Amino acid sequence: MEFLLSDPTFAMACEQFHRVASFLGLPEKTREIIKWPQRSLTVSFPVKMDNGTIRMFVGYRVQHHLALGPTKGGIRFDPDVTLGEISALAMWMSWKCALVGLPFGGAKGGVACKPSEMSKKELEGLTRRYTQELIPFIGPQKDIPAPDIGTNEQIMAWMMDTYSMQVGYTAPGVVTGKPVTIGGSLGRREATGRGVAFLVKKVSEILKMPNPLRIIVQGFGNVGSVSVRQLVEQGAVLIGVSDLSGALYNPKGINCAHLCAYKEKTGMLAGFPEADPIDGFDLLCQRCDVLIPAAKERVITKKNAEKLQCRILAEGANGPTTPEADKILEERKDIFVIPDILCNSGGVIVSYFEWVQDMQSYFWSEREVFDALYRILSATLHSIMKFSHERKVSTRIAALSLGIKKVAEAKEMRGVFP
């Protein structure tokens, strides 16, 4: 398994883990048991393309640990997917689920592909073939996939249908993030973004920050767009935004409704007439109250950490801040970091609610979903801040400590199977 360490994202996740394990005083044997993924699956499969050719794809599914229950984690369709990246994301999901008190271990999956260049028919064929390969390893009591980058409700519907056809009965609990009509939960689509917005508002109140909050968001997909819309509805001002097509900046404010309409029409942010183009690196370093990295891993680095001019860094993405950048931010002490395993946990929390509803065949109102979500986020934020204050460590170390400690205790109580 050492080859995984050659992947920079997995190496980063391990560096975070070992720093916290040393802080907690975990024995070496415990570290080894809970660091490495328990199961790693690599599959290759053919898909018939619209032009009649057959194309081979490579996919992965990693289950990090099973000490607390079945595993849980998203499916990513992205050309940069690697086994190392998926393993790192599964590890972070383990600490996240433990931190917020969910009865899950962490998992993650993905296929190396570019969905924007595939037809709906090709995507369906890819999804069903990939799911077929996963069937021995997934299930409502084994491993429950969910949407991630490049996937959505439709992908989850195809996965559920493929699994159900194989087992001979409808099994809505095999995936979460499905359409509501086939067992999805109200509020699941917006859960991650609304969780980010809730935590930003909560922290800004704790820090007694004046309104309106000035927001910059990197990544305007589901998480970034929902969190911004929520914050703008509460009086915040969006001044900077980016996606794969480019970055935009307007210190006087960007009309969020106009921006969303433009993105819906064109599929991109580039060319939006009410803001000026700006380099993506420079956007992160503009003065603002809240910076929300909501795209991919390792975007806050030692190259830009010293240049950040935000008061709150709200990590909507997984692993956006490198360990080197973390050390700089800890020394600065002027930026409050809402760590990723808390900040973007709204998605997995509401996925848990969806799984519970599917298992019981009893569905909740949207108000019930979000009331329960906000209670968990609020309590977890309080626990992290209390730990951080009492132990005099960063919020990231506090969050990881609470999650890793729970997994380590569960592994210790269950013992090592002969």
UniProtKB/TrEMBL annotation:
- Name the domain of life this protein comes from: Bacteria
Which residues are in the Glutamate/phenylalanine/leucine/valine/L-tryptophan dehydrogenase C-terminal domain?
A: 185-415
Has the keyword NAD been applied to this entry? yes
Tell me which residues bind substrate: 72, 96, 351
The protein's UniProt keywords, in alphabetical order, are: NAD, Nucleotide-binding, Oxidoreductase
Instruction: State the Gene3D superfamilies in the record.
Output: Leucine Dehydrogenase, chain A, domain 1 (3.40.50.10860), NAD(P)-binding Rossmann-like Domain (3.40.50.720)
What Gene Ontology molecular function terms does this protein carry? glutamate dehydrogenase (NAD+) activity; nucleotide binding
- Sites binding NAD(+) sit at 192, 222
Question: Which BP terms in the Gene Ontology apply to this protein?
Answer: L-glutamate catabolic process
Does Cytoplasm appear among the keywords?
no
- Tell me the SMART domains matching this sequence: ELFV_dehydrog
* Residue positions of the active site: 108
| Residues marked Important for catalysis (site) | 148
Q: Name one Pfam family in it.
A: ELFV_dehydrog
- Per the similarity annotation, which family is this? Belongs to the Glu/Leu/Phe/Val dehydrogenases family.
Q: What is this protein called?
A: Glutamate dehydrogenase
The species this protein belongs to is Methylacidiphilum fumariolicum (strain SolV)
Q: What is the lineage of its organism?
A: Bacteria, Pseudomonadati, Verrucomicrobiota, Methylacidiphilae, Methylacidiphilales
Designated gene of the protein: gdhA
